[in-house]
Write a structure and sequence with these properties.
By secondary structure, this protein is of the alpha+beta class. It folds into 2 domains: 114 residues, no CATH class; 38 residues, no CATH class. The chain contains 4 helices and 10 strands. A 6-stranded antiparallel sheet has the order 2-3-4-5-1-6. It has a two-stranded antiparallel ribbon with strand order 7-8. A two-stranded antiparallel ribbon has the order 9-10. The chain is globular. It starts with a strand and ends in a 5-residue tail after the last strand.
């Protein structure tokens, strides 16, 4: 099921509306120097609502949303989370923030989780995983039962 969504919004009117939403509370603020020209300062202000992070930065608004955690009041994601539940959570989010132009919300990261009961030990299952799509996993030298895509190492 959907474990994580990162959504980019560039519509300035919506960004301003969300930034001024009284339900969001301040989470943190960061500034960093650009590693390209060492003169430009990039800033990010993050506000939060019930575990949903709203990151306001130079590129617009990034929304970091974990629907399964949200479904469980941000306590865990260890229960069944059906497609119907997921759709309901996302529809609730759309309604809660009065999103009337969902096409302006660009998903830039989408992570799925699959819960399975394996007949073999999980360590063996991970050890035997070789490929995802056409990408071969590489062993992560720092973690015994972990693998990464080549572009992440």
């Amino acid at each position: 099921m959907i474990d994580f969504l990162k959504i980019l919004v560039t519509d300035t009117a919506f960004i301003e509306k969300i930034y001024n939403d009284d339900r969001l509370i301040f989470h943190n603020s960061r500034e960093k120097l650009s590693h390209f020209d060492f003169e430009t300062i990039h800033s990010k202000v993050t506000r939060i609502y019930k575990g949903i992070l709203f990151c306001f930065n130079d590129n617009g608004l990034e929304i970091l949303f974990r629907p399964h955690y949200y479904f469980n009041d941000n306590i865990h994601n260890a229960n069944d989370f059906t497609v119907k539940d997921c759709i309901q959570v996302i529809n609730d989010f759309i309604e809660m923030f009065d999103i009337d132009k969902p096409e302006q919300f660009r998903i830039i990261n989408l992570e799925f989780g699959v819960n399975v009961i394996s007949d073999i030990p999980v360590q063996d299952l991970i050890t035997r995983a070789e490929y995802h799509g056409k990408n071969r996993f590489l062993i992560d030298s720092g973690l015994k039962y972990s693998k990464k895509r080549p572009d992440v190492i």
